[in-house]
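Data card: per-record layout.
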Amino acid sequence: MTGKTAVTAPHINQDFFSYKNFSEISRQMGKLINLSYKTFTIIPNSVLKDPNLGMKERGLLTTLLGLPDGWDFSINGLSAILKDGRESLRSTLSVLEDIGYVERIPVKNEKGKFDGCDYKINIPPITNFSS
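The structure for this 131-residue chain is written out next.
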């Protein structure tokens, strides 16, 4: 992820989006790729009306849309800002992946070895991929 910087909003407490001691963890979590983040969250009506989304999926997707691009993505990070437990978040995220709203992008380190995944939000969802 060399050369990328996270987008920050000065009016938002950035501690809300970070953890202490994460600098000591090499690449155990991916980055969130959210190109729609600015100082407010735009939620397309298609997300609100998608019959494939339950309330949990819609709520998690809305939360992801509100996080800054480059946020250190992890289930633990999500559970720190949401009431849901890790297993609930993991299964809800899996549904969003199956529908195509969230895409895992494998990342390799300098040596070409797998180094985790980044998570990209797709609005509209990607529907032409093979599982």
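Known properties of this structure: The domain at 14-20+27-121 is CATH 1.10.10 (Arc Repressor Mutant, subunit A). The chain has one domain: 14-20+27-121.

See the next section for split statistics.
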